[in-house]
């Protein structure tokens, strides 16, 4: 099997939303240079939003921004930052405001992962993932909140389903994503009165992404136990959930976790 390019087009989208619902709006997405977050960004741009994608690798971001703009006809700003560094995040926000003048929606998606049992995991390995996933999300909220308040916008945090049960070799990510879920809930209740919403998308197994390449068995899963929907997810499934949660159709939905996992989480818990 050819290696996954981690560049998943939204061509697999089954969006039923109007193409211009985010016209004039601006998305700020950490981790937007690749994988699921790139697909979420593409979905938003296909529905009218301009975007800033944030990551550590400027070359990769620049290439992704060009491809996203060409595919959608919207503007995409590559903004280099490490979510572990509040100073670089603030610079990325300043660049976004300088270019677009506003931030309406934020996706906290930057994440790190690898498989290792607790017995072999170094203290620094655990800390690194906590710093990227949990503290990185906190830093992103801090850097963007004033702008999201001003636009009465919304956050989506990209979590996972693996921490709702004990998933072997995932202690670092499980602890980090539990923190992300909690952070989003607190943000929702604190900022609701300011017109800001915050929700979590918890992707299940999504084909063609770096996370799945690292974590999952390869090949066709149709008929395999553990896949109630008979297939793996596609990035377009997460894109559709993103459009819904950021849209006015979800204006009374905040503080929630939406698993987009084809039912895998529930089946795993009963095996
Ligand atoms: C054991 C490892 C390791 C591995 C790194 N470490 N990889 N330990 N097994 N495979 C340890 C290192 O030895 C080091 O500890 C510490 O982690 C930090 O590693 P660095 O390489 O110095 O850190 P850094 O360069 O910041 O890289 C961060 C990273 C990297 C997380 C390690 O892999 C990364 O940035 N990945 C991003 C891409 C990615 O993984 N995306 C997929 C996310 S999917 P010591 O003790 O040696 O100093 C996802 C969803 C999951 O999150 C759910 C899917 C269903």
Automatic annotation (TrEMBL):
User: So what does this thing catalyse?
Assistant: a (2E,4E)-dienoyl-CoA + NADPH + H(+) = a 4,5-saturated-(3E)-enoyl-CoA + NADP(+); a (2E,4Z)-dienoyl-CoA + NADPH + H(+) = a 4,5-saturated-(3E)-enoyl-CoA + NADP(+)
Put simply, this protein is called 2,4-dienoyl-CoA reductase [(3E)-enoyl-CoA-producing]
**InterPro entries given in the database record:** DECR2-like, NAD(P)-bd_dom_sf, SDR_fam
**Where is it found, in Gene Ontology cellular component terms?**
peroxisome
Q: Which Pfam families match?
A: adh_short_C2
EC number(s) per UniProt? Answer: 1.3.1.124
- BP-aspect Gene Ontology terms: fatty acid catabolic process
What UniProt keywords apply to this chain's record, in alphabetical order?
Answer: NADP, Oxidoreductase
The UniProt entry, under SUPFAM superfamilies, shows:
NAD(P)-binding Rossmann-fold domains
Q: Which GO terms describe its molecular function?
A: 2,4-dienoyl-CoA reductase (NADPH) activity
Keyword field contains Oxidoreductase: yes
Per the UniProt record, the lineage of the source organism begins with: Eukaryota, Fungi, Dikarya, Basidiomycota, Agaricomycotina
Top enzyme class, one word, equals oxidoreductase
The organism named in the record is: Agrocybe pediades
């Amino acid at each position: 099997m050819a290696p996954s390019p981690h560049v998943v087009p939204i061509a697999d989208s089954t969006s039923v939303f109007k193409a211009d619902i985010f016209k004039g709006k601006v998305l700020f997405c950490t981790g937007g240079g690749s994988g699921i977050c790139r697909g979420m960004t593409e979905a938003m741009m296909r529905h009218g939003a301009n975007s800033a994608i944030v990551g550590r690798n400027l070359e990769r971001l620049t290439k992704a921004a060009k491809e996203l703009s060409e595919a959608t006809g919207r503007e995409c700003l590559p903004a280099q930052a490490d979510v572990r560094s509040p100073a670089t995040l603030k610079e990325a926000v300043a660049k976004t405001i300088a270019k677009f003048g506003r931030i309406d929606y934020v996706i906290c998606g930057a994440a790190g992962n690898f498989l290792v049992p607790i017995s072999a995991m170094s203290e620094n390995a655990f800390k690194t993932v906590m710093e990227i996933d949990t503290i990185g999300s906190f830093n992103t909220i801090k850097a963007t909140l004033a702008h999201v308040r001003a636009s009465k916008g919304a956050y989506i945090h990209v979590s996972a389903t693996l921490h709702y049960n004990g998933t072997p070799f995932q202690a670092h990510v499980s602890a980090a994503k539990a923190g992300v879920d909690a952070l989003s809930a607190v943000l929702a209740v604190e900022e609701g009165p300011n017109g800001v919403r915050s929700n979590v998308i918890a992707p299940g197994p999504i084909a063609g992404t770096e996370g799945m390449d690292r974590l999952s068995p390869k090949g066709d899963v149709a008929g395999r136990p553990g896949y109630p929907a008979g297939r793996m997810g596609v990035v377009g499934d997460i894109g559709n959930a993103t459009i819904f949660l950021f849209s006015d159709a979800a204006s009374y939905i905040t503080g929630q976790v939406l698993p987009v996992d084809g039912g895998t989480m529930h089946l795993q818990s009963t095996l």
